[in-house]
Amino acid sequence: MSETTGASYAAAGVDIEAGDRAVELMKEWVKKTQRPEVAGLGGLGGFAGLFDASALKRYERPLLASATDGVGTKVDLARRMGVYDTIGHDLVGMVVDDLVVCGAEPLFMTDYICVGKVHPERVAAIVKGIAEGCVLAGCALVGGETAEHPGLLGPDDFDVAGAGTGVVEADRLLGPDRIREGDAVIAMASSGLHSNGYSLVRHVFFDRAGWSLDREVEEFGRTLGEELLEPTRIYSLDCLALTRTTDVHGFSHVTGGGLANNLARVIPDGLHATVDRSTWTPGAVFDLVGKAGNVERLELEKTLNMGVGMIAIVPADSVDVALTTLADRGVDSWVAGEITARGDHATGAELTGDYAR
């Protein structure tokens, strides 16, 4: 280009027209997430998303809860596989299932998609996945931002993040103060790796084992890439159903840090959570990460969810109702442990025994 030619945004690598087309393509998916509180208010393309807060008048003392998250290096697998319409499920799950831990109903989300170059159909596919996740979570997608960062990201590179808001009645707020000695620890099965530990997983399978994404893995019954891209399970509506059918004392979303560390975050001083490994068998992917990378069990457990994506803590006499509620909703769950008085040597939560085989 001649030095006398005027500079432009397009010449710098930002395509505004492509961004506009991406917005048009995603509108139909965003519309599917509408709740009554957002219907007819603005719409996609405005400067801010709107939510009719008069819906909160039915609460005596509504507490708003907020959470934000991303999906980490799992986006690299989506990029390499050219599959963009599932990563949004992961994003929604990471956000709304943090909200529901305190008993909050997810109300709405916004997203942020950062790309090296706007490919309208690709961006729309990402938003489609986010919208589908919002439907599964019962919340509205009220807006977002797509940013084009040429020079910082490659043409096919992207990242996603999101923020969500929920509401809970003050006297229904869940937290460590509700946990009691004798409570049961109920585990809810994960759909796989979910969205945590992918830096370790990618290092093990690609750098150490030298596997390719299209490698057929007998233990999975599908390719490595298909297994690794399995979407995160979204538990928010399942957890809210539990709060309606039984006296839930607490939840723990099992994400980065593993089961014991995340469970410990909701255990109060003076009490201790014990989880028995023999009550379940982790999926094949967890075993293969360990074997392919020679990763010690404790390292796996503090990095991956090991087959448990959410924990509910309920009174012992509520176990049957809780398990029935989850079974009716298609959630595989089981009693995995209990809450006991804490000894001087005990930590907030620990895993005991060996996994079932």
UniProtKB/TrEMBL annotation:
<protein>
    <recommendedName>
        <fullName>Phosphoribosylformylglycinamidine cyclo-ligase</fullName>
        <ecNumber>6.3.3.1</ecNumber>
    </recommendedName>
</protein>
<dbReference type="InterPro" id="IPR016188">
    <property type="entry name" value="PurM-like_N"/>
</dbReference>
<comment type="pathway">
    <text>Purine metabolism; IMP biosynthesis via de novo pathway; 5-amino-1-(5-phospho-D-ribosyl)imidazole from N(2)-formyl-N(1)-(5-phospho-D-ribosyl)glycinamide: step 2/2.</text>
</comment>
<dbReference type="GO" id="GO:0046084">
    <property type="term" value="P:adenine biosynthetic process"/>
</dbReference>
<comment type="similarity">
    <text>Belongs to the AIR synthase family.</text>
</comment>
<dbReference type="Pfam" id="PF02769">
    <property type="entry name" value="AIRS_C"/>
</dbReference>
<dbReference type="GO" id="GO:0005829">
    <property type="term" value="C:cytosol"/>
</dbReference>
<keyword id="KW-0658">Purine biosynthesis</keyword>
<keyword id="KW-0067">ATP-binding</keyword>
<dbReference type="GO" id="GO:0006189">
    <property type="term" value="P:'de novo' IMP biosynthetic process"/>
</dbReference>
<keyword id="KW-0436">Ligase</keyword>
<dbReference type="GO" id="GO:0004641">
    <property type="term" value="F:phosphoribosylformylglycinamidine cyclo-ligase activity"/>
</dbReference>
<dbReference type="InterPro" id="IPR010918">
    <property type="entry name" value="PurM-like_C_dom"/>
</dbReference>
<dbReference type="InterPro" id="IPR036676">
    <property type="entry name" value="PurM-like_C_sf"/>
</dbReference>
<keyword id="KW-0963">Cytoplasm</keyword>
<dbReference type="InterPro" id="IPR036921">
    <property type="entry name" value="PurM-like_N_sf"/>
</dbReference>
<keyword id="KW-0547">Nucleotide-binding</keyword>
<dbReference type="GO" id="GO:0004637">
    <property type="term" value="F:phosphoribosylamine-glycine ligase activity"/>
</dbReference>
<dbReference type="GO" id="GO:0005524">
    <property type="term" value="F:ATP binding"/>
</dbReference>
<feature type="domain" description="PurM-like N-terminal">
    <location>
        <begin position="60"/>
        <end position="168"/>
    </location>
</feature>
<dbReference type="Pfam" id="PF00586">
    <property type="entry name" value="AIRS"/>
</dbReference>
<feature type="domain" description="PurM-like C-terminal">
    <location>
        <begin position="180"/>
        <end position="345"/>
    </location>
</feature>
<dbReference type="InterPro" id="IPR004733">
    <property type="entry name" value="PurM_cligase"/>
</dbReference>
